[in-house]
Amino acid sequence: MRFFIEKARKGDIMKPKTNKTTGTKKKSVPVRKRKSFAEGVKGFFKAVGNEIKSFFTIFVDGSWRTKLSYVIFGFGNLVLGQIARALFFLAFEALFFFYTIKSGWARILKLGNLKELTEQVEFVRLFNKDIHVELLLSIFSVLLVVVCIVVWRNSFHGSYRNDKLLKEGRKIPRSAFDKGVINFIKAVGNEIKSFFVIFVKGSWRTKLSYVIFGFGNLVCGQIARAALFLAFEASFIYYIINFGLAWILKLDNLGDIGSHEEYDPIFDTYVRVNGDNSFKILLYGVLSVLLCIVCIVVWRMSFHGSYENDKLLEEGKKIPKFKDDLHDIVDSKFHRTLLTVPAIGITMFTVFPIIFMILVAFTNYDGAHDGYSGLFTWTGWANFMELFNTKTSNLGYAFVHILLWTLVWAVLATFSNYFLGMLLALLINKKGIKLKKMWRSLFVMTIAVPQFISLLYMSKLFAKNGLINMLLIKWGFLEFPFDFWANTTASRILVVVINIWVGVPYLMLIATGILMNIPEDLYESARIDGANPFQQYMKITLPYMLFITGPYLLTSFIGNINNFNVIYLLAGGAEANSNLLTSGGSASDVDLLITWLFKISMGTESNYKLASVIGILIFMVVSVISVIGFNLMPSNKNEEDYQ
Predict the structure, then answer these.
(1) Is domain 383-636 classified as CATH 3.40.50.150?
(2) Which pLDDT score, from 0 to 100, does residue 246 have?
């Protein structure tokens, strides 16, 4: 609230010619004189000279970290704990050299003979235009070299700035990610250190607890704890020996012999014999690895608990018994009790499926290689390379086409609902509007009907044999039925408009509650300063709304990227685009990445490997947008202003 009141007091709502309080005129901003072309050229060469001078100056005056940053991008940042920057620099350098050595340098050399380059007939259709692939990649390679020079400069310049900060005794700036990585490394180091310290300083009970889980608790009379530790150790050893180790060893190639037929001399015929199952090997192998990680955690708890008992005995304190543990579970450690079940559920039903999906992306798991009748195996980065390969498959074009439409759809669906919902709330809340409750109720009725029914109804309404076509033909607007869902422009406009019809009431209700809390004094001050309604909206209403609803706007945008319901229920039966036919299946012009993923995995070929790759890429796109959007959000940067 303080943020907006200060803006009103400082005159930021409007910029009047005179100050209403003092009556003095505000100082005019001096107008910069535009530079001539000659001065611009002179300034350019001066900047180039300064860059060349700084190149040698930094190398001479910089520390050893900075000197190594000339060769290893981000080395200076890595040494000083700026992990995020260092990873970006190192990843860029690695990718640049990999691409340049493999094909980039050869493509740059091809630019020397444009005639030979243009004679290589290799086109790809993108945005309804034929683009020469090799020429485009050659130009891209040159631009990548320029970008590499800029990144290289930022590498040693950033390290040199850190050198100056250290000389001045100032703190090196680190992001939350940097601090998290540093804390994680410190925690691992402390765990390794404590492992040896406890073994050296611990009693004989503690030393035996390294081998027999809960032995120290058993000797000290903590029977319940000891029983749990011993039961877990026995169960783990039994599982690993009989099942787990075999699953883990088979993770190397995901099976040797699949289901096959063998001759049975008794029945004098061939019978089906079950072999390895790649799906089960991957599933149970990963579960066995996770169980080993859990075992390490329990093992740590065993000797740490025994060492704590040693310290209690040295201090002459009482060792907690079973009833004390029960009391802690329902009292001082009740928060852990409540979080245990959700944590297990998230691990089993969220974390594990994500790990499994990521691993599937590196296999050839599909309908032909289902893991039972046909084994699947590891393929490395082949699926990712296939998705971005424009020479031998159409997957790259389909992915770029659908990704661009997904982002356009997310922007249109999010901001159309946001601003129209806000406008509708402003209109209904305006003074002089009668029957406000009735108008709100009419719009809320739209969301009272289940979305599943509404969207299917609208899909049939605009079908080729639907009611809309019948009415348009009857009224003379059309001679033949128009297939809305087969036309790219019409289908995209329809899904956006219908999404507005479904989503605006939600935003209207949210905006109504927020607008009622904006102090009327702000609008009064703005009117006194001469602000018109549009200026009041831009300087007061919109900043206030963005400040409050920023997180909702971001989550709504992410939700629309993965908005399966609206697209699939409305245009699930839309005609496939012939340019989007791929080895993984077909897609229409209205499909988002999430609906394309569904069609690929549920199609005749059941291309699970490609679906997993697309799922990973969706996660990467959503993560980047979420991180950038959250950091740019006013409510995140100016959180202290809203008091």
Answers:
(1) no
(2) 92
